[in-house]
Design a protein that fits this description.
- With about 230 residues, the chain is mostly helical.
- It is elongated, with a radius of gyration of 20 Å.
- The longest helix is centred in the first third of the chain and has 14 residues.
Length: about 230
């Protein structure tokens, strides 16, 4: 066993939460396969940061054997920080059976949990995911809407075209910006008229994002300035 790995495995059992957290993260960065079971055990650590560090370590290992323990931890942890790292670990493992438990978290009472879940779902090209994220565009929290829009763009979800176009009218500028960016990523020509209209948006960042989207889609010259 590598000496660094052995050292961090020992520190993972240490008395200091800060030490345990640092070693969990380090074991992930080292992609130490020997750390799989110790990191799974650390998902039940009494300290929130250590549990988050363990999830991060498992995210880096990308081992499907961690899927079931991560799902158990997902149900047991309500802290958004821990939830984010568990969700991202599940996203890296990409087990299709993990989709439904993650989708359930889009209904969580904590908006940060809903938002982080929307981000993690970018790993799953699944119709259930797209439909749930389209619904999340109606969320009352703008961070959730932005994350849902970004993930729909990453997934290239043409089914979300009309809802994203409608989101260009949202009263909050950074939501409009996320919608414009997503439409550019999807690259469907049917969004061009709406993006052209967005060039008149009151917010500079929204106009700039619309310009970038249109250039990316080939409907504006790379040298065009608006």
């Amino acid at each position: 066993m590598d000496k660094k790995v052995e050292w961090h495995l020992k520190r993972l059992q240490g008395r200091s939460a800060q030490t345990r957290y640092a070693s969990a993260v380090a074991l992930g960065k080292l992609e130490a396969k020997e750390a799989l079971e110790p990191l799974i055990a650390a998902l039940q650590d009494p300290d929130i940061t250590v549990r988050a560090g363990a999830a991060y370590g498992l995210e880096r290992l990308r081992d499907s054997r961690a899927s079931a323990p991560l799902l158990t931890a997902l149900q047991a942890n309500n802290d958004p920080f821990v939830h984010f790292h568990i969700s991202m670990a599940l996203a890296e493992i990409r087990n299709v059976q993990d989709v439904e438990p993650l989708l359930a978290r889009l209904q969580d009472s904590d908006p940060e949990v809903r938002a982080y879940t929307a981000q993690a779902l970018c790993a799953f090209r699944d119709e259930r995911v797209v439909l749930s994220l389209i619904e999340a565009l109606r969320d009352e929290n703008t961070f959730v809407i932005r994350c849902a829009a970004q993930t729909l763009g990453t997934l290239g979800a043409t089914q979300a075209l009309e809802p994203l176009i409608a989101t260009l009218q949202h009263p909050v500028y950074d939501v409009r910006e996320s919608a414009a960016s997503a439409l550019g990523e999807i690259g469907d020509a049917r969004a061009v008229p709406a993006l052209m209209a967005t060039l008149q948006d009151s917010a500079d960042c929204v106009r700039d994002t619309a310009v970038f989207a249109l250039k990316r889609m080939g409907f504006l010259s790379p040298n065009t300035e608006v």
